Every structure is written in C-alpha cells, then in structure tokens.
Amino acid sequence: MKNQRTPEYPVHKQFVKRWSPRALSGEPVTKEQLMTLFEAAKWAPSSYNNQPWRFVYAMRDTPAWSTFMNLLGQFNQQWCQNGAALVLVCAKKNFEHNNKPSRTHEFDTGAAWMSLALQGSLSKLVVHGMEGFDYDRARTELGIPDDCDIECMVAIGKKGKKSRLPKELRKNEFPNQRKKVSEIVFEGRYQG
Ligand SMILES: Cc1cc2nc3c(=O)[nH]c(=O)nc-3n(C[C@H](O)[C@H](O)[C@H](O)COP(=O)(O)O)c2cc1C
C-alpha cells in the first residue's frame, strides 16, 4: 500500500503509528487529557536535569483561544479551527543553577515535545506541531520573556473525518515516509 509505513528494523509500533493528521473533529478534550500530555513531556531528559521546556496553552471555548488562533498563519487556521487546544512550546535559554547559557535547551525541549506527541498518539489524540505562526506576536501577546526561546505551536484535538478538511488539504491527509537509516546514520565520520 502506497501510504503504509514499514520500518526497516524492528521498532515498537508507536514510533511508526504516530503521525500528524489535520482532520480534526471539533470535539473538546478534557483538561485531564491535556495534562496527561504535559505529564509525559515533563519526564523527558535534559542537560543537568534543567527541564527548560515551558508550555503555554489555550483550550477551545476559552477567551485565550482566539488570541492563539489569531497567531496562526492562514494555512494552519483553516484546519486548526476544529482543534481542542493550542500549545506554545518554549525553551528557557539559561540553566537555573548558574544562569549561564545552556547549549541544549532547544534539544531538550525537542525531546519533551516528542514525548508529548507520542503520548498524544497513544491516547488516540491528534498532536500536530506547527511553525506557521507569528513568533514575534506570540512573544508580546502571550507574555513570553526574553530568556525563553519560542520553538513551536502544537494543535491538539480529536481526529475528524477527512471530508471536514478543505479540498486541497485532503490529498495530503495520510502518514508520510522517511529517509532510509543509511542516509542519516554514519559510522566513524560524517558523510554527505
Ligand atoms: C517543528 C514543526 C513545525 C511544523 N510546522 C507545520 C505547520 O506549520 N503546518 C503544518 O500543517 N504542519 C507542520 N508540521 C508537521 C510536519 O509537516 C510533519 O510533522 C512532517 O511532515 C512529518 O509527518 P508526521 O508528523 O505525520 O510523521 C510541523 C512539524 C514540526 C515538528
């Protein structure tokens, strides 16, 4: 099958089963469901266990929802309007223990986001990362301090029918493929 994801090596199925749908149902998720995702994120590893990740969220049908939605680019707005929550992912730049810059704050926060995404997939929720939003306005409108990098926005919701999507988005509504392991892994010295 064209859209089938087949791993080259044996891995737990959760890694290949997670993907980023855009078709959302418009149904709400509970605060408990949302907090479960942040719980998964918080157990990610980080340099010096600094836990630099910070999450700012808005749930549908709350006053903050429209502020978050208005930060999104048009492309993302058209499918996120059926989402249940939007989350801004940030990374604190400095270590807490000495206030010196951390090299890995974004790497660590990436790990936390992936835990959140995998838990979402295990909880049968859509979790879809986005860079298509206004980073500068997000900083001012959501009060993100200068010592925090803004990394990504995340749409969360219940999966909906493909027919809910605008026509031009339907053709890409399937799990995509990946490079081969041999294209991304090098023994001894970088190649490419
Ligand atoms: C940091 C980041 C930014 C992304 N930005 C967008 C975006 O603005 N809009 C969108 O529809 N998808 C966005 N995506 C989704 C990616 O296109 C998707 O993760 C990628 O094609 C791999 O597909 P998969 O997540 O279904 O495995 C983003 C994903 C990440 C991780």
Describe the structure.
The chain is α+β, with helices and mostly antiparallel strands and 192 residues long. The protein has a single domain, classed as 3-Layer(aba) Sandwich (NADH Oxidase). Helix content is 33%, strand content 16%. It contains 8 helices and 4 strands, in the order ααβααβαβαβαα. It has a 4-stranded antiparallel sheet, with helices on both faces. α2 packs across α5. The longest helix is centred in the middle third of the chain and has 18 residues. It is globular and about 50 Å long. The model has no long low-confidence stretch (mean pLDDT 97). Flavin mononucleotide binds next to β3.
> Can you tell me the CATH class?
Alpha Beta
- State the helical fraction: 25-40%
CATH superfamily: NADH Oxidase
What would the principal axes of the Cα set say about the shape? globular
Strand segment count: 4
- Gap between N and C termini: 31 Å
Pairing-aware structural class of the strands and helices?
Answer: alpha+beta
Uncertain segments: none
- Kindly report the CATH topology: NADH Oxidase
* Strand/helix succession: HHEHHEHEHEHH
The main sheet orders its strands as 1-2-4-3
User: What is the residue-averaged pLDDT?
Assistant: 97
Count of domain modules: 1
The Cα radius of gyration reads: 18 Å
